[in-house]
Amino acid sequence: MEPVNIAILGLGTVGSGTYRVLQRNHNEISRRAGRDLKVYGAAVQHLNKKRDCDISHLKLTTDPFSLVEDPEVDIVVELIGGCTLAKALILKAIEYKKHIVTANKALIAEHGNEIFSLAEAQGVTVAFEGAVAGGIPIIKTIREGLGANRINWLAGIINGTCNYILTQMRDQKWNFNTALQSAQEKGYAESDPSFDIEGMDAAHKLAILASIAFGIPLQYSKVIREGICNLDPIDIYYASQLGYDIKHLGLAKRTDAGVELRVHPTLLPKNCLLAQVNGVMNAVAIHANAVGPTLYYGAGAGGDATASSVIADLVDVIRNMNIPAHMKVPYLAFQTKLLENLVIMPKEDIFSAYYLRLSAKDEPGILAKVTQALGKRHISIKTIMQQPAEFSHDKVPVIIITHPVKEGLLRAALDEIRVCGGIDNNIVTLRLENLILD
Amino acid sequence: MEPVNIAILGLGTVGSGTYRVLQRNHNEISRRAGRDLKVYGAAVQHLNKKRDCDISHLKLTTDPFSLVEDPEVDIVVELIGGCTLAKALILKAIEYKKHIVTANKALIAEHGNEIFSLAEAQGVTVAFEGAVAGGIPIIKTIREGLGANRINWLAGIINGTCNYILTQMRDQKWNFNTALQSAQEKGYAESDPSFDIEGMDAAHKLAILASIAFGIPLQYSKVIREGICNLDPIDIYYASQLGYDIKHLGLAKRTDAGVELRVHPTLLPKNCLLAQVNGVMNAVAIHANAVGPTLYYGAGAGGDATASSVIADLVDVIRNMNIPAHMKVPYLAFQTKLLENLVIMPKEDIFSAYYLRLSAKDEPGILAKVTQALGKRHISIKTIMQQPAEFSHDKVPVIIITHPVKEGLLRAALDEIRVCGGIDNNIVTLRLENLILD
Predict the structure, then answer these.
(1) Any binding-site annotation on A105?
(2) pTM, 2 dp
(3) Do residue B144 and residue A298 have CB atoms under 8 angstroms apart?
(4) Residues of A with CB below 8 A from B329's CB?
(5) Which one, A288, B65, B189, B428, has least CB within 10 Å?
């Protein structure tokens, strides 16, 4: 059989990792695909830039469209990133009936519904394992490995930058800025780190995971999103005293009322397996209705790690290419219609436990006002901890952990507490999840 | 298209779980398979036995061969277990050109080479995701998700009975027999528990994992196997003092000298993610050359959990059935020829760190003899801990942790130590692994 020609668009970290791994494990990969794989060419911005792979036999061009439109090319591997050029290239590739493999989480999360409709109409596959959780084969796991299940919820540490920063804040007792600087020095955070630390990257990935898990359209804009920039090391310390770690989690839950989609700092019991995931590593916990709780752990980013997923997709796409069109099982794209009872929950309807830290005047009666404001709304307190005032301070910290409560109700209680008198406006509010993983 | 007819052989825990999950999630499963799935019939030993599923619409027979030979049946799901009847049925099914899905680890581990050769010759698939690690889709992960990688090693907690017993011995400070009894009361151990506690079950599963991971024939008889029956709670306590947990691990490692295959109690650093896996849960850690360290965690046994894997296989088999024979990519069966440099290492050539507990007379000079016997063989000591003699005892425990050493050399050193005088014959010897999972 003829070799399959692939075009790699972009030779950055993931692109050069992909080419490198393809060369290193070429025979094994071709064997698994059932056909010989040939890298027909690669598109880059700068021809003479030094690359992290051996490009001596690689045909380079600065015109990615020339590869996409080339009739010799069977599969387009988009590893440029972003939503402008990458989107134009992918749409053009679909038009030219090429299959696509991408690691572009932003593009899939924000434009995936459109891309998948077009791909389905053209009978081509768009695969995106590398877009979520790096080298962990999580998309394949949800779609195929857990295909017999209905998924109840999933919770993921899916941004290595945030997880590294939080690990350092906890272990080194650093503040956020120091930890961020350390991440940047190690190459774990960009010079403009906002995409990671403000949670957009995690929200993109969560939108994708939730779509595959629940069979709903991509709804990135509805993900409730909070980053880690405002975290104070003192809360990491208090949480630890109370038996919790703070992780930046992506959560997708199916409830009777609808689907929750949220990424935010979250208190997790220290002995929860997910809380043991440190540094830049990622993990996704999935609770499904036949197998129960499961967890998948590995490198969430990096050239070779993401290449591992990109190439696994290539093998699947090539194996699928051999199937006559009328016999193909449609690649499980997203549902284009929202199933009627699966609304995405707005923020005020989210049901969660909370960690609160108030700063209260060291006077009688304040605690009573606080507990009344909560009690009258039936907000149940699990733990309350008041620390004595430090020398020369007139304010004491009061830490409260609530049982699960509707967010709208809690916000109303906090609004009332703020006007009580004697309590600072700034009340630290962090969600808490008692995930059961056994 | 015609529905696909499946026959379920055995309606025990996994069989009734499979039928139950198929009924519960029928539409979703058919959608993913691309064809309607029909349970044509089931074979059982006792027609009137109470089943853990709704059998009102299920055609039952006590003659499993009648289903296997029935031209209407497309796929045979073997959930009987064991190597006698199950083997005869599977060979007959292959002869009749039926595809097979099984959860039978013993059969695959001990007869898989033969079964796969015959299946390949007949052009049928034998799938066995449910045979290893219950509901964790580990076979699919190794074959497909990590298909772009070369696997360096894998380490698994793959027997829930052993893991439950060790967790209880550690947390409740019980001895082995008490912990075993507790496991039996909870249904986590059989009345004859030998298969689990002596390590045969883990060895079966490890042989299968290693074959898929390294592309070698199944070599169950070469797995170095030790169970947990001889573990003393005092060693769990000392290990803990030194920062280690004891788990019953299955280890498969590729080294320059060959492949190590072993299942045995193993000291693991407490902070290793694998050491956080408790109770009946399973986990497999895999280190691969592109993605690096990964870990997969979930229920290793149970009706619905294993059914999850059986049905995922059914979907794959059905999707594969649609492919014309000349276009099929051969289902990656085991290599029938051993790759020339992949010998399975004999016990004395295994390279490992060790935990040793000697019982020595409380006299001068004993330690010198011990350290000399080790030192002259260049066996490096990482830690040595001598506890004071308890009141009225004349022996003291000496605990040693070595750096990695060839087993044959260590055994020679221990033989010399035993004849030194002043040291008990019984020297507790446990292997230790410093697995790096980040």
Answers:
(1) yes
(2) 0.95
(3) no
(4) 32-34, 319, 322
(5) B65
